[in-house]
Amino acid sequence: MRYRNLGGTGIEVSAYCLGTMMFGAIGNPDHDDCVRIIHAALDQGINFVDTADMYSAGESETIVGKALKALKGRRDDVVLASKVHFQMGEGRNRSGNSRRWITRAVEDSLRRLDTDWIDLYQVHRPDPSTDIEETLSVLGDLVRAGKIRAFGCSTFPAEQIAEAHHVAERRALPRPRTEQPPYSILARGVERDVLPVARRYGMGVLTWSPLASGFLSGRHRLGRAIDMTTGRAALHPARFDLSIPGNVAKLEAVERLAEVADGIGRTVPELALAFPLAHPAVTSVIIGPRTAEQLGAALKGADLVLDDGVLDRIDEIVPPGTNLYHPDGVWQPLSLTDPAQRRRPLADRSAG
What we know:
By secondary structure, this protein is of the alpha/beta class. It has helices at 31-43, 59-69, 99-113, 132-144, 158-171, 194-200, 231-235, 245-263, 268-277, 292-299, 308-317, 334-337; strands spanning 3-5, 12-14, 16-19, 48-50, 79-84, 118-123, 148-154, 178-180, 204-207, 284-287. The chain has a single domain, classed as TIM Barrel (Alpha-Beta Barrel), CATH 3.20.20. 37% of the residues lie in helices and 12% in strands. Strands 3-4-5-6-7-8-9-10 form an eight-stranded parallel β-barrel, surrounded by six helices. Strands 1-2 form a two-stranded antiparallel sheet. It is globular, with a radius of gyration of 20 Å.
């Protein structure tokens, strides 16, 4: 396992980060099995574990907490990351990036994780209803209180990353130290702006969905029917419906990528996991196994380093900066989803 510095934090993390989104009700509901998977990852050299309060409504954090407790004094060996933003439970003011909610949410996460601190606390998505100054201020207070060691953001547009750094400098507030964007061979859009901006500000980058929602897992190939009742296909059916032309294009790219992988004696998922780590802005790639077998398959490629010839062939198949699908199906900004954000009031439209 290779290790890298997480931005300018001085924290060393493994090049593979264990993502735990599939631990709990939406993936693997067997807590004991999930704990074994976490321990197996740690035994193989992974020291970086990423979760979020909203994964299975807090169940994932509870599972991670059980795994940490069973380490019996080895909590310091684990760099623990979690996130805040999405709705938790019923009622108002139980989501977003406000001081009121983050102050409550971090205590809930610490309780579920059964730990005194979180190494990296990430704002899961932007919140247009909250000033970024408000969010940076409370996160800085949590660092000073020792409840978190550092903070970052996840799936922020490049302009909002830059705004956060600008506000932090102007208001003498702590700045975000990491960004967590979706990045894979089939979704390279962040190469246009997010990754260069993160690199410009010296941020650590941990990328999610390297297997492109399963399209680069090796299970989905041209000519094979896709089971729409399980896994990612059940969660995001529009991404897997082959009557949609863009989905067929993804499978066509997979066939060409399989030739590249065969040429270096590797599998498509091994190629896919190695790809983000070739970018100079990327610190760690998140793997999200549901089973021990999936973890083992992912770790087989941990030693793979792609040379320029292989990267050139990948560029020919999926050009740099190109998305063959929208990688974040969970969240869209209000600037797109709310018509009022895109349309002048009717009375104003004919105004000079």
